[in-house]
Design a protein that fits this description.
- With about 220 residues, this protein is α/β, with parallel strands linked by helices.
- The protein is built from nine helices and six strands, in the order βαααααβαβαβαβαβ.
- It has a six-stranded parallel β-sheet, sandwiched between helices.
- Helix 8 links the parallel strand 4 and strand 5.
- InterPro entries: Beta-PGM-like, HAD-like_sf, HAD-SF_hydro_IA, HAD_2, HAD_sf, PGP-like_dom2.
- Belongs to the HAD-like hydrolase superfamily. CbbY/CbbZ/Gph/YieH family.
Length: about 220
């Protein structure tokens, strides 16, 4: 059995259930700027970068009181505060880390979230040393669903795409990893992600608890 050389984790929705934090922060910040924030709008923006979400709301309901960058940073600040207060790993995450480490597989993190939040999460969970690279969409030209962040992660880890696996909770992330030439295991964080995930991922799991050594073979 030939194992892959690297596993790259997404973060939001896969390692931690941060979506409630994002929704709360975005509703608080953009509502205060005069936007009418609805659940439907937030479903549309769920997989976007923070900058793209800010652009989305500005186009719908422009404000003048602060800059778009200041609005974006206000959201990030609030999410960071919420994560520091309540950061709980999703079931199976630590077991997945142990499985990879004991198998000699390199571990990376590639997230659309700001690097500040990536560092907060892995520090709060006490697993910073497990990751050989931690990348945010802020550090590449374009976030997911573009493949840039995965291509950068592969370069940083010095691993070919054919020998790497992405763990993703959303179709957006799966598309990015697939475009980078990687294997993809989907762990959908939302019910409506299941069907598109079946089209994009090599395998779909209900939870990281189900991840086994047999899933970490080169296809």
């Amino acid at each position: 059995m030939q194992l892959i050389e690297a596993v790259i984790f997404d973060m939001d929705g896969l390692i931690v259930d941060s979506e409630p934090h994002w929704k709360q922060a975005e509703k608080n910040v953009f509502s205060s700027l005069g936007c009418s924030v609805t659940d439907e709008n937030q479903r549309e923006t769920a997989c976007l970068t923070t900058k793209a979400v800010t652009d989305y709301w500005y186009e719908l309901s422009p404000w003048k009181s602060i800059s778009k960058r200041e609005a974006e940073m206000a959201v990030i600040e609030e999410v960071d505060s919420l994560l520091q207060q309540n950061c709980i790993a999703k079931p199976g995450f630590f077991e997945a880390l142990i499985l990879c480490r004991e198998s000699g597989i390199k571990i990376g993190l590639a997230s659309n979230a700001p690097i500040r939040l990536c560092r907060t999460v892995i520090s709060s969970l006490g697993c910073r040393d497990a990751f050989s690279c931690v990348l945010s969409s802020e550090q590449v030209t374009a976030g997911k669903p573009q493949p840039d962040i995965y291509l950068q992660a592969l370069q940083t880890l010095n691993v070919k795409a054919s020998a790497a696996l992405a763990l993703e909770d959303s179709p957006t992330g799966a598309m990015a990893a697939r475009s980078a030439g990687m294997q993809v295991i989907g762990v959908p964080s939302e019910l409506h992600y299941h069907e598109p995930m079946r089209q994009m991922a090599d395998r779909v799991l209900d939870s990281l608890i189900e991840l086994k050594l047999s899933h970490l073979q080169i296809a």
